[in-house]
Specification:
Number of domains of chain B: 1
CATH class of chain A: Alpha Beta
Helix content of chain A: 25-40%
Structural class of chain A: alpha/beta
Strand order of the largest sheet of chain A: 6-7-8-3-9-10
Structural class of chain B: mainly alpha
Strand content of chain B: under 5%
Oligomer: heterodimer
Largest sheet of chain B: none
Amino acid sequence: MINVVDVYKSFNGHKVLRGINLTVKDGQSMALIGGSGQGKSILLKHIIGLIKPDQGKVLIDNQDIGRLRGKLLKQLKERFGVVFQGGALFDSLTVFENVAFPLREKTRLKDSAISDKVYNELTRVRLSGAEDKYPSEISGGMKKRAALARCLIMEPQIVLFDEPTAGLDPLTEKAIHKLIQDCQKNLNFTSIIVTHEIPAIFSIVDRVAMLFEGKIIAEGTPDEIQASMDPIVHQFIHGELEGPISIQ
Amino acid sequence: MSLIFVPFRILGGIPLGFIRELGRMACFLAVSFYWMAFPPYLLRRIIKQINFIGVKTTFVIVLTGLFIGMVLALQSYYALVKFGAEASLGPVVALSLIRELGPVISALMATGCAGSALTAQIGIMRITEQIDALDAMALNPYKYLIIPNLIAGIISIPLLNAIVVVVGIFGGYAVGIGLMGLNSGTYFGGISDFVKMKDILGGLYKSLSFGVLIAWISCYKGYNAGHGAEGVSKATIQAVVLSSVLILVWDYFLTSVLTT
């Protein structure tokens, strides 16, 4: 279970997170929505331990990731998989090498076993045939799928998606959402998806939380969020120009 | 009241910022050396980086060394001939290259060629979240990015220095013997008489420390690159300028220590 408890974070005096409280239960999928620059990706980096909070804590199964060091931190991080916004594929490696990278570095599997696992994973994300291509030679959608394959190959218990469909065409976006949903169903991982894809995201997650001005202002099932009478939530999910959110 | 202190705050902020940056750089190097003490050592990555820093700079180093040796011989010849000491051309060229020009020129060329590329490479990895991806996989970015480059720098720069020295001596030979008509035996005989192991070791110490310096500054600047293409370009410029200046400053201090 992921428990974000009263997390505050500032950068150069600019307050980004102002007391975030969020709980994601095991096996649950949570969408984190909110305008650009509201701190969604920053919150995600707190959860994986890439950024430490100024105040508050992030508990993963009651272990404070901000206070763990050395082997314990490594063991905890090994339970995570992250799909970064741009894929974060290593540009000097091919798609195959990227997906094989965690296995080569963290396991003692033989090359043949690694190869089998990589091909299986690439088939799962429908990326067969692209294994010899470099990240610069493939489309945005393929990059996201390759990043998903690299993330899933270590069978993580918690997967964090940072805008997995940003910049993709509607069909590819739908395909990626379907892929995430299928993988979640088959592998039963806990997930947090930072996204702007509204309302598409509502059909693939269990819960939705909305971040506004550094705080979670609404949390509930997709139906509850869609029915919310909160003027900020209403304006955001319906994409209305008039309302309490000022467009910058 | 606070307005009165604004100029003092600005004035004080400059050295404070400089000291803070120095502290960060020192911590970065200390953390790198700390992780260097623990295996695994990524041999393949080290070899790849030796190729990146060393092999890819070799052609430029050969060209530079050749012409540095040639111009050194030409200038020294005209000075030496005034004192009737043209027979000392070999030792003058060799000692200048071994003790001073070889280490400095090889380090400056490696900074321009490999150091800048290294900063840009790591900087791009930073802004495209590839370093975060390593961290998120519970892999130590220092082990994968910084330490192989430090080791590659320590190995490559002394080798590049050796190339500059050898090619430079032959460049000087071509001018001295080919153009000025000096005796070949005098040229090399003088070198073996006057060049001592102490001179060679001095040059080696210099290039070893330059290797650490180039890899350290280039990696640090790339690792802490700002946002976007502008952040990477700024980091690259800073890495080249800072490395070049520090090479010359450090060279002076090391020369003072080695010659006393």
